Structure formats: C-alpha cells, structure tokens
Structure of Serine acetyltransferase:
Amino acid sequence: MAETRAHLAELDPVWARIRSEAEQAVIDEPLLGGLVHYSILHHPTLDRALSYRISLKLANPEMSEQILREICDEAYGEAPELALSARADIAATYERDPACHRFLQPLLFFKGFQAVQAYRVAHWLWTQGRRDLAYFFQMRSSEVFGIDIHPAARIGKGIMIDHAHSIVIGETAVVGDNVSMLHSVTLGGTGKEEEDRHPKIGDGVLIGAGAKVLGNIRVGDCSRIAAGSVVLKEVPRCSTVAGVPAKVVGEAGCDQPSISMDQLLRGS
C-alpha cells in the first residue's frame, strides 16, 4: 500500500493528496464515509471522480446520471487538458480561498469549482459541434449551482470563483489564466447584437463581488476591479478600477492581484 501511494504521489500529486485527505476525512467523520468513498476513493483517477461528481450533480429526470457520466468520461478521455485545468483550479482555490484548507474541499463541497468543471465539459461538447447537449449542461449548471456560463465562452486554467453565486459569463467572453472572481460577477454584453460582444479578461485579474464588466472590452493582465463596479471601458494592465462607471483609481498594488486577493483601495 505504501509503495502504491508513493507511486501515485509521483505520477499525480494532486490526486494523491486528495485521496489521502479523503481517507483521513472518513476517519474524522464516519457519517461521510459513503459520500467520500463514492465520490473519491472508489475512483482510480481524478478524471473518473470528476465525471462522477458532475454527472451526479447535473442528472435529472430528463437526463440520467449514467448517460451524463458516459459523456463526461468521453470528454476527459478525448481532452486530457480538461483534467489538467481542474488540477490547476483546485490548487488555485486552495491557495487563494482562506476557507479552503484541503484539496478535497473543492471537489466535494465548492459549487464554484464544480460549476467550472461542468462548464469545461460543456465547452468541449460545443467545440465538437454537439451544441444542444452543451446547452443542456449550461441549463443544469445554472439550475443546480446558480452559475450561468455559456459553453462557447473561453476560460483558462487556475480559476477561483469564491462563493460563486449568481455568476454570469456570456457567449463571446474570454477569461485568461489565474483569474479570481467573487460572487455576483457579470461578464455581459451591452445590447442584443450577435457579434463579439463580451469582455476579454486578461491573466491574473481579480474581479470583486458584484462587479459588472460589459461589452467587448479588454481588462488588462494583473488588474483589479473593485466590488460593485460597472466597467464599460478598457482597463489598463496592472491597474485598479472602481466606481459606477468604473475609473482608474490607482495601480494594482502587486504583481498578481488574483493570488493576493487584496481588495482594499488604499490612498484613493
């Protein structure tokens, strides 16, 4: 057993850590033993565990868990980058969310992480031309998690969505790597035009709670958007914007705002 664990830790340290934490969780709280076994310890890989969690959450009388699980297994089998992005999302959540104390928690309990993984499968379906099925994933994610991400949106890896209630990300939105956002964020359009109409969020951006970023505008790398702001114009890289409508109020204050999660506006 020790050799097996060591080998797994060498091949996949994220999954090895999740399994180790799961074993301890069963010891600490036996009443969660069934949940932990079915969700984590029963599966040989993170890919299979993700398929199980997504299908379990999104299943309803219109689409069975078994069918959804087959779809997810196909997606993870055809696109290994989905599980790689999930690993980055887990690490990002653990690093940035002070309420996250174990790698286990996003997979079992955090709807922001789970909704992003469901989106990743939906996006894969969209790129395969299976758009009605992608819309089904979007619909169920919205109903179950309270998060509405269009399957055509493009989202990078290392994403952390804290609390994650009432997130809306539109069809032509692009979100870079290592982005953090809090609840009630909208990346929306400004009208009913069908062309490219949603924001482009750079790498390392921090978006505060309730912020609305509207239109086909660029938010520069490593910038900050203050809570409650309405952003209608381009945001320069490494800057902080705040207000309604949002204006530049200073520099970002650090190299990686999305990692530091510092939302205070100093000297402004």
Observations:
- The mean pLDDT is 93.
- The first strand starts at residue 147 and ends at 149.
